[in-house]
Amino acid sequence: MTAMSVAILFSGQGKQTATMGADLYAEDGNYRQVIDAANQQLNWDLTAPLDVQDPQRVPVAIAAMSLGIYAALQPSLPQPAALLGLSLGEYSALMAAKAFSMTDGLKLVADRARYMQRASVMNPGMLVAALKVTPALVAQACQAGQAVGQAYPANYNLADQVVIGGDVRGVRAAMASLTAQGVKRLVPLQVSAASHTPLMAPASTALAQRLTHLTVRTPQLPVWSNTTVTPFTATTLKATLVDQLVQPTHFYADLQALAQRGVETFIQVGPGSDLAKFAKKAVPTARVMNVATSEDLAAVRTNLKAVTR
């Protein structure tokens, strides 16, 4: 395996658990060092059981866990060709690439969560995952939804899986349109914020102001944006993060772009395994792994040793 063949995928929200990372903290010194540093910088206790409904602590805990796993893996990894996260995971990836410090990044993640929570109160919304669809069919359904409310594509996760977001009237109308077109699988997500849609405009505005106080540097590794499907630069980073809140994510296109550039191995770090599953579906020939537990970490280290011999 060459240094140009590995991409690290940083988890977004949705698969957090109350005790996530506890086994890693107990068993891995590199992981523990990251969490201890985060606790000291935030004056929080990320080793305590997590309230999985806490809108501000959950994203910080996920980002810290993802960075801890990345640190634990680094001695076993060749230099990654790229880093990629989904939504929140982009912040973890940018911290891992030293585009901004972990101290600044985790505080920014907490503030972003607060802005999004406030926006969801101002503009209540919903998200629904549509499976076995095409982007054109989703666009048509969103047009139907916009006749009565607000409905937009929010996440292009796979070629045939798109999340729709908007207000309740608009999204339900979009769902009815898809059902009428024969779509069988529509899965409402357990969220109240229509992330990556115009309903997050108040959060986007607040984030833009907040980012004026953030010091950014050129990422040390390429970090691919879900919004632009290109790597972040120091010049574009702030504007892209602002846009990310109100524009759809293009995770599938990012995976395709990395595969076209020779990435053969995708490793998800953080809670859950959805991104690894997306990678396997988007790039069937890829080697895919994920690390969410100490058992996963041991297995991935073993696999990396085997393929680098």
What does this structure look like?
The chain is α/β, with parallel strands linked by helices and 309 residues long. It folds into 2 domains: 3-120 and 199-307, 3-Layer(aba) Sandwich (Malonyl-Coenzyme A Acyl Carrier Protein, domain 2), CATH 3.40.366.10; 125-191, Malonyl-CoA ACP transacylase, ACP-binding (Alpha-Beta Plaits, 2-Layer Sandwich), CATH 3.30.70.250. Helix content is 47%, strand content 15%. It contains 12 helices and 9 strands. The strands form 2 sheets. The chain has a 5-stranded parallel beta sheet with strand order 7-2-1-8-9, with helices on both faces. A 4-stranded antiparallel beta sheet has the order 4-5-3-6. It is globular and about 55 Å long. The N and C termini lie close together (8 Å). The mean pLDDT is 95.
Summarize this entry quickly.
With 309 residues, the chain is of the alpha/beta class. The chain has two domains: 3-120 and 199-307, Malonyl-Coenzyme A Acyl Carrier Protein, domain 2 (3-Layer(aba) Sandwich), CATH 3.40.366; 125-191, Alpha-Beta Plaits. The protein contains twelve helices and nine strands.
